[in-house]
Amino acid sequence: MSESSEVRLKSEISLTVNGKLETVRVYPMERLLDVLRHELRLTGTKEGCGEGECGSCSVLIDGTLVNSCLIPALQAHGAEIVTIEGLASDGRLQLLQQSFLDCGGAQCGICTPGMILASLHLLKKTPQPTLEEIREGLSGNLCRCTGYMQIFEAVAEAGRRGAAT
Amino acid sequence: MRANPAEYELVAPGTLPRVLSLLAHDPGAWLPIAGGTDVMVQYSAGKLPSRKLVSIWNLPELRRIDISGGEIQIGAACTYTDLREHETISREFPLVASAAAWTGGIANQNRGTIGGNIVNASPAADSLPALMVYEAELLLVSLRAERRVPYANFHIGYRQTQLAPGELVRAVCLKKQFSGYYAHARKVGARNAQAISKVCLAALGHPANGVIEDLRLAVGSVAPVPMRLAETERIVKGNRIDPQLIQLAKTMAAKEVRPIDDIRSTSRYRAAVTGNLVAEFLERLRAHAGRGETRENVLARWNNLPADKAAEDILPCCGSKTWALAMAKRRPILAEAALLSACDEVWKNLPESDWLEAFRSHPRIGDSHSPVSAPARSASWSGEEQRQVASSGEDVKTALTEGNRAYEQRFNRTFIVCATGKSAPEILEILQRRLQNDEKKELQEAAEQQRQIAHLRLKKWLSL
Lengths: 165, 464
Fold this sequence. Notes:
Chain A has helices at residues 32-39, 95-103, 112-125, 131-137, 149-161, and strands spanning 11-17, 20-26, 58-61, 64-67, 80-82. Chain A is 31% helix and 15% strand. Chain B has helices spanning 16-25, 39-44, 80-84, 87-92, 94-101, 106-111, 114-120, 127-133, 230-236, 243-256, 267-303, 307-314, 321-329, 336-348, 352-360, 376-385, 387-390, 394-411, 424-434, 439-462; strands at 9-11, 31-33, 52-55, 65-68, 71-75, 137-141, 146-150, 155-157, 160-161, 168-175, 182-188, 199-208, 211-220, 227-228. In chain B, β4 (65-68) and β5 form a beta hairpin. Chains A and B meet through β4 and α3 of A and β1, α2 and α6 of B.
């Protein structure tokens, strides 16, 4: 058997996801995206392009926005992850989610979880962003349905409602 | 075909010495991975050159920025976000900060690293032309040694570098020697974020004594490696920029590059755009140098006038003769900043009678006639300052007239406000508020407004 098809060992990886400590046995080069979707059954995080271009797999790692398709599982060991499932609490939507709903910021829904996490990351840094700042903050997230305007409006509205706090 | 993670090994030794001994143990076998923005894309496509990876993400030795003496050392694992948010980098190396800001989107900026961008060696990487014009040096480290190489020699061919097996880029070094340089960067791509450049230019120019003393032009995406436009630099350096020289430089730049046709653009387009970007930069540099020269010329001429003439010349900026004479006494004044701070110091120490004299040189707000004693230049500036008021509606103008009358009755002088950029309703609101002031507070407010007017007028005076 050649080295190229040699099977490596799985590792034990611990990470906190939406406040809950999880331990999984995965290959260290498994993508965080796959760990979330397949191991932890958190399918809110979507796969679009799989190469860091579209932003639909966006999650927060230690408060920082990343594309989870580009993170090997080993690099997430010990990290705190927030996915779209971690936003609502006690059956109540987070203000950003409510604003997307109110402003028509979601259509087919594939980009929406990533859009909302990118928006959350933006609002944490800039609670009342200008349109220019919103455009830049979401420039790594592609949407093929809405034409973006309702999404930008939803983020501005969430800022006015104080979603970052 | 999707890569199978079971076929790959990934380790995270945690410190630089441990990573270096791993690399030294089996040189060339391990592929370093930092933020993964390039490596993971190749991995998913099944195109990685190695099945053994070592994580260098967040190694403390590589994720730091040190400033010592005249140099800044940027750790290779610093992300684009780290670069964008660093105060010294934004101020002294704006081309690095702007390249960081237009690489990928926010998520990729949070993970992509400067060292990764360098080692990935894409001819289209936006940060590399910036490193070329700042003449960056790289610190390359292995278990046994550290060496320093100019970045310009590091890329030796399409996706080829000088990095030896077992070696890592530890830091990027930039010398703080670019004060007085005019910096300009421009990327041409399909969209701002997430698009790989068709052409990108980083440029620095240093104008002095009417000529371009130093010029540095570097472009990406137009050759197998990012390149300096050495010939174009040569024909511009030491010369005064004029339309003919710009035309010459534009032609030379288009000729100097060696672009290819690919999925993003064509060779012809890239060559033409390179020429245009160089021309655009030189136009801006010329305007920038011209502004600097005008200011220097106005001050140089003024510094050489007899005192009474110098006072007369600067009087329209303020209206107080004592102020003008004191300013003339402070010559020579060599720069705009010095002129403005001299203005403030003289103004705040004048007695009230001189303040009142300055106030009297202005027409009433809404009045088209300046006092007959005011110099012609002062009258014409007043017209510009009150442009918005002049074009406002009759009812607002009437209210202003009434307000002015009330103010004059109350304080026994004309109402002074820095009107530039203010609409008539805004001024009316200020006037009504200030009518509530007591005499002492109102005098201070009027004096502050006069100081602001003087600043704006001094800047206009410098560009006459």
